[in-house]
Amino acid sequence: xxxxxxxxxxxxxxxxxxxxxxxxxxxxxxxxxxxxxxxxxxxxxxxxxxxxxxxxxxxxxxxxxxxxxxxxxxxxxxxxxxxxxxxxxxxxxxxxxxxxxxxxxxxxxxxxxxxxxxxxxxxxxxxxxxxxxxxxxxxxxxxxxxxxxxxxxxxxxxxxxxxxxxxxxxxxxxxxxxxxxxxxxxxxxxxxxxxxxxxxxxxxxxxxxxxxxxxxxxxxxxxxxxxxxxxxxxxxxxxxxxxxxxxxxxxxxxxxxxxxxxxxxxxxxxxxxxxxxxxxxxxxxxxxxxxxxxxxxxxxxxxxxxxxxxxxxxxxxxxxxxxxxxxxxxxxxxxxxxxxxxxxxxxxxxxxxxxxxxxxxxxxxxxxxxxxxxxxxxxxxxxxxxxxxxxxxxxxxxxxxxxxxxxxxxxxxxxxxxxxxxxxxxxxxx
Length: 430
What we know:
Pectate Lyase C-like
């Protein structure tokens, strides 16, 4: 699929480059011979139409071109397809458009030998269903060899093929740099709007089932997200320093969300370390924890106007807290299920700096918990509950006398119209 570039940008031509590149959109076939760079913004996208590249294949395999796409025709796991393109030096996020079908397999995508993610090609349909994904980021210094490696197929798939439209390498402000340190796991970057692979969370009774993962990725250094990251229901799990499911407070998270970021359609496997950290207003949509580590997610905002929203998803097997609230602001948990946990929410009881915090629960299911929420009434915390379904006899709202050192003490529980706000009709027994 070719897309026309809009006018209105200042371009400088780099005639020595072997591939077309441009700012913010793929070149049309008519423009493909004119490489363009927006020098004023210093953000570059190298756009690589799959059918226009010179592909190498493993023995017995074929890269079959059409006018607008390319089909990788593999016959076994381990088959490979690759091409090389000239690229200006820089750090690039890797994005691509590919099709799913009942005859397509699963692939690992590598750039200069570094894995940037996986693609799940199977769907039950007999015609192409197109998806756009953003994978990891890599630092390049003049050329990029992009390699697709067959990693098998789903049981329902009839073949190992894959169809690709284009690959984009997005630099500068469009890419999130790979974290420093020893990690070989690239940092995901925002997925374009409209590429969600699962529907908006239902407002009906929340399901406590976690969907089957669509591939998986080890994470050895925290993945920093700005904008939107749609994981396509990939499972992410900790390795190296993040390869723990213990209760150490000093663990890093698998994901760190910048102010304004959204994380959706992600499964956190085991080990999950300290889950997800939000540095400001953020949204978690259809995020699933198979086995909560220290905490599933922590709100570390800096302003009382910031809001962390958890909409949809499931958390299982939390020996203590699911959601931890350390900064100021409001946390909203809706259309969510927590199963076999200690407590669903805790306002930090002994942070060195304390705030009046708020939390609101709407349409949540809580199974096997000791309590739903723990708040600090002495700091003015407020917890509101609506359509909360519980199993057993958990404490709905546990009040504490918070502190800045030492351990907080319990200070009563139950609805009081001030700190713990709910009526009997807001709570349903499962």
